[in-house]
Amino acid sequence: MRYIESNVEEYIEDLRSICGVPSVSAQNTGIDECVRTLADIMEDAGINVQVIPVRNGNPVIYGELRGGGTERCIGFYNHYDVQPPEPLDLWESPPFKPEVREGRIFARGVSDNKGNIISRIEAVKAVTKILGKPPINLKFIVEGEEEIGSPNLPVFVKEHMDILWADGYLWEGDGVDERNRPIVTLGAKGILYVELKARGAKRDVHSSMAPIVPNPAWRLVWALSSIKGPDEKIRVPGWYDDVVPPSDDEIRLIEEAPFEEEEEKRELGLKEYLLGLRGIESRKALYFSPTCNICGFDAGYKGLGSKTVLPSEAMVKVDFRLVEAQKPEDLINKLKRHLKEEGFSDIEIKSYGGYEAAKTPPKDPFVRRVVNILEETYGRKPVIKPTSAGTSPIYTIRNWMGIPVLSCGGVGYPGSNIHAPNENIRIVDLINSIKFIASLIINY
Predict the structure, then answer these.
(1) What are phi and psi of 134, to 5 degrees?
(2) Are residues 351 and 370 in the same domain?
(3) b/e per residue 188-203 (b: at least 16 CB within 10 A)
(4) I want to staple 396 with a disulfide (CB 3.0 to 4.6 A). Which of 73, 116, 157, 209 is the partner?
């Protein structure tokens, strides 16, 4: 570990070099340059790199490093693409000119996810410098489309299962919580994202025509009210048929996980959660309940002042978070059938695809090994979450290949501002992440 502490400046420079490339997948900028830069950094660490083209998508960087005479293997998943940096006026320094201030590194993507990529590469470099080569085999998947929903990762995994096998995968990388306790997440919810569109007259008309001209905005409001009620339950028949309830072990982890409820409410400006949920019941709902959320609604006049208009078109974007065993391809069919049966066959439905949920059991041997090494490295008992309220394509490895997947040992902290202006990490968290990955490689 002394070697790692003596090379901090090198790690920061490598991180600055990769964060200086604006690899924004949503805008298709900087992708090729980022791939070249990252491949060079990986090769410099002794990793054998293949840049694998993806049909109609961004390349996947696949890396492999053979260890010392064992079949044991750990896989790492990361992504090199980042969110758009806007709004630019809220950044204290340019988002793609990394800056070090007060023990932190500021840049778009420094936490999500380039800091985690670098920590893993630098750990490999440190282990090979000291030992000559790692005692186990290592594999890396670094994709370039996570921030736009990983549309091509499923195809990549299906086509390359023969090279992707490992004992287990570390996904992206959870960091530490408000009290610097390391976080472990064992799964992720799935998602189905749709756009609903209603049409009325061929053009906007005066609102005085409301008694005889249909309003597409009202059509969507009525359709939405048929999908979910004030009790937060999704009313589409069969929506909950395949839901698998959480196990006793998963409930125990939720009960044991620290949770600053009042602090979270203050930060959100809320007096209470939906339906008055409190304590453990709010956590159960967060992690184990399917959701239906309106992401955006567009219709009619939205400028300053008034304009009496009846819109000709209305659109709403909706995301459904899915839990274990729910399948997005099944649910989109149930949604279409429901709207038709409720009298909304005129509403157009566009699906933006989705993921399955996926979870690794808390008692899986891979989980136990990783958690033990994490606790030893950080000197603190980890906070273990059975799943995430968010979504990630871990199902491609966990569900399809049966390989355990978890997220931990990352560079982030609660103030990292992921997806927001002034994204940052603390240098101490970067170093701790490198130490953990190095220790995992050596002691696994």
Answers:
(1) -70, 155
(2) no
(3) bbbbbbbebbbbbeee
(4) 157
Distance CA 235, CA 228 (A): 5
Is 294 domain-assigned?
Answer: yes
Q: Is the pTM of this model over 0.85?
A: yes
Examine the pLDDT at 75 and tell me if it is beyond 90. yes
Q: Identify whether residues 31 and 52 lie together within a single domain.
A: yes
Note the pLDDT tens digit of each residue in 161-191: 999 999 999 999 899 998 999 999 999 999 9
The predicted model gives 316-336 an average pLDDT of: 97
Task: Select from 335, 355, 375 the last residue of a domain.
Answer: 355
Check whether 1 has a pLDDT greater than 80. no
Closest by Cα among 186, 185, 163 to 174:
185
The pLDDT of residue 68 is 80
Tell me what pLDDT residue 173 has.
86
pLDDT at 32: 97
* Confidence band for 353, pLDDT divided at 50, 70 and 90: confident
Provide, rounded to the nearest whole percent, the portion of the chain with pLDDT above 70: 100
pLDDT at 35 exceeding the cut of 90: yes
At which of 355, 374, 403 does a domain end?
A: 355
Q: What is the signed CA dihedral for 161, 167, 172, 174, rounded to 10 degrees?
A: 160
What sign does the dihedral 195-198-199-203 (CA atoms) show? negative
Regarding whether 158 and 24 lie in a shared domain, the answer is yes
Closest CA to 40 of 59, 17, 20, 24: 17
CA distances from 279 to 79, 112, 177 (A): 34, 29, 18
Residue 218: give the domain boundaries. Answer: 190-243+290-355
Residue whose token pair is 């079949």: 71
Comparing CA positions, the residue from 31, 13, 12, 8 lying closest to residue 21 is 31
pLDDT at 250 over 80: yes
Which amino acid appears at position 291 of this protein?
A: T
Q: Are residue 221 and residue 125 in the same domain, yes or no?
A: no
